[in-house]
């Protein structure tokens, strides 16, 4: 009975893994095929593993430039999010007051508001500030939009740190900023890594805000560039190039998540215990 129960448990997991992995494998195979191979033998392995489709996607369809743009806004947005969130989370956790409680509730409530409601006001605000079609401004928008979630995660980690450590540092003459950056920040490293990974993946995959706020093709991120490539593929019959572009967009996320998935699980577990 124990063996049977184990088999019954694993069968749905195996089926789910197949459903998730098979489209990825099919996409990778299609990236090395010509259009003729894609239509005549869509389920077979490519006859020739040529990187022509990757070269065309990177150079002819602006995927290379979009890749660099996405990398820029992802790195800068993740950095700004952490810089803005760590001091705020520390102040909200350690400085207990009625105003602080209200502010925490405001941050939590903002996470429940659909982001689509802010797109039109944000567009006109950036237009008045002459910040449309600007990757730096897009990175700042990404960062601010994820500050409430980041604070929500980091507050749990900071709450696990014994206050006696900070009191001992005060006795030794350390300033509040020294306590924050030399004692508290290293102790919540796991939480910082966890939330940075989650934010970075979200920034890399983001589409709608980049579509609305960017207007020049040379500044498009990967999501917008892939949408344009999808439209072009319908008229140019560049289906192999489309698969190659998808691979370029997906592979960094898969590699990144594969290396840091343990940090995510560890970080979410530690942050949940207080």
UniProtKB/TrEMBL annotation:
Residues 67-260 form the ABC transmembrane type-1 domain. It is a multi-pass membrane protein. InterPro entries: MetI-like, MetI-like_sf. SUPFAM superfamilies: MetI-like. It comes from the Bacteria. The chain crosses the membrane at residues 7-29, 66-90, 102-124, 136-158, 179-204, 238-260. It is found in: Cell membrane. Keywords: Cell membrane, Membrane, Transmembrane, Transmembrane helix, Transport. Belongs to the binding-protein-dependent transport system permease family. This is Carbohydrate ABC transporter permease. It comes from Solibacillus merdavium.
């Amino acid at each position: 009975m124990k063996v049977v129960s184990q088999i019954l448990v694993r069968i749905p997991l195996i089926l789910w893994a197949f459903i998730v992995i098979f489209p990825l494998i099919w996409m990778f195979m299609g990236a090395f095929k010509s259009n003729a191979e894609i239509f005549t033998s869509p389920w077979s392995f490519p006859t020739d593993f040529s990187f022509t489709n990757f070269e065309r996607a990177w150079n002819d369809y602006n995927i290379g430039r979009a890749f660099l743009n996405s990398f820029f806004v992802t790195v800068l947005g993740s950095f700004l999010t952490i810089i803005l969130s760590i001091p705020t989370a520390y102040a909200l956790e350690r400085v207990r007051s009625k105003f602080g409680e209200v502010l925490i509730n405001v941050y939590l409530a903002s996470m429940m508001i659909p982001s689509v409601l802010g797109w039109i006001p944000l567009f006109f605000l950036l237009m008045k500030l002459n910040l449309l079609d600007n990757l730096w401004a897009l990175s700042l928008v990404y960062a601010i939009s994820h500050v409430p979630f980041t604070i929500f995660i980091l507050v749990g980690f900071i709450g696990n740190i014994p206050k006696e450590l900070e009191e001992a540092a005060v006795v030794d003459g350390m300033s509040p900023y020294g306590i924050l950056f030399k004692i508290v920040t290293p102790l919540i490293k796991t939480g910082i890594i966890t939330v940075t990974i989650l934010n970075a993946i979200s920034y890399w995959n983001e589409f709608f805000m980049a579509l609305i706020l960017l207007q020049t093709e040379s500044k498009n991120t990967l999501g917008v560039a892939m949408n344009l490539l999808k439209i072009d593929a319908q008229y140019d019959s560049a289906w192999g190039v489309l698969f190659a572009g998808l691979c370029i967009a997906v592979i960094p996320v898969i590699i990144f998540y594969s290396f840091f998935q343990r940090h995510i699980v560890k970080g979410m577990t530690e942050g949940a215990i207080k």
